[in-house]
Each structure stands twice: as C-alpha cells, then as structure tokens.
Amino acid sequence: MVTIAMISDLRSRKISNRLILCGYAICLVKAVGSFSPATVLEVLWNLSVPVIIGYFLYLPGVIGAGDIKLLSIISGFIGLYQTGIVALIALLIGGIWSLILLLQNRVLEKNMFAGICYIWELMQGNMIRYRDLPVEREQLTIPFSVCIALAVYAVVVIYGR
C-alpha cells in the first residue's frame, strides 16, 4: 500500500483518496476479524491520532493531507509507537533531501530567511500558511510519501512487522 501511494505521489503529486479508503477498510476488516472489541477500539485510536496531530501540521502547510492520511493507515497497521518512529525517520530523510535541493538550487539562504520570518510571524500570533511565503516552491517541494515509504521499509526491517 505504501509503495502504491509513493508511486502515485511521484506521478501526480497526490495520493488518491480511493487508495486511502482501501487502506482504512483493510485496517478495519483486520480489526473486526480479530473478534475483539478492544482491538477494534485500538485500531480506531491508531487511525485517529495521526490525523488529529497531522491536522495541526496541515493548517500552516507543513505537510500534505495525503501524507497525513497515509501515516494514519500505517498507524492502523503497525501501531502508534512504530508510526512515531516512521515519522521521525521520514522527517530525517525529508530534511536531508530538502537540504540537498536547496543547495542545488542555490536558494538555501533565501528559504532560511523565509523560515525565520515564518517562525517570527507565528511567535507574534499571526497564523499564516508556510506555503504562502514568497519562495520558489515547484522545484523545491518533495513528495513526502517517498520519505514515509523508505521509513516504513526501515521500520519493517528493524521490527520485523
């Protein structure tokens, strides 16, 4: 599922809601198949927490909605703890990839200044979206699902799930 989402994101820069719904359905069928109400509640909780936390990252434009929903599905399959590890590894991969792009395009200073201005605005209580800052976006955005997929593969190797 993660691989399909990654390919979709690479091709169209979107993760299909049909794919997301399939992922949710598989998680719920698996939970109901356990015949344990506690398992169903745990899976529902695991699906919900990444969406709730991710919503606050989506509002300012830090992460896309598809990436949040993808992390939610991952959480439904492997649990919150491992999903937290996936998110941290994905952020590390994404940060390195973004730094390389900024250096290649020679816009590191400009974007660092925009980031500092963004943080300053937030500290002043002004809610602005990061994606609305005056920086060149097209060649600098990354398909974060690739980072998520690589992180999932790493966690699966480490934890064997």
From TrEMBL:
Prepilin type IV endopeptidase peptidase domain: residues covered: 2-99
Coiled-coil regions, chain positions: none
The organism of origin for this protein: Agathobacter ruminis
Pfam family, one: Peptidase_A24
Record's subcellular location: Cell membrane
Protein name: Prepilin type IV endopeptidase peptidase domain-containing protein
Gene Ontology CC annotations of this record: plasma membrane
Positions of transmembrane segments: 43-66, 78-103, 140-160
Membrane topology annotation: Multi-pass membrane protein
GO MF annotation list: aspartic-type endopeptidase activity
Family matches, as InterPro entries: Preflagellin_Peptidase, Prepilin_IV_endopep_pep
Alphabetic keyword roster: Cell membrane, Membrane, Transmembrane, Transmembrane helix
Main location: membrane
Origin superkingdom: Bacteria
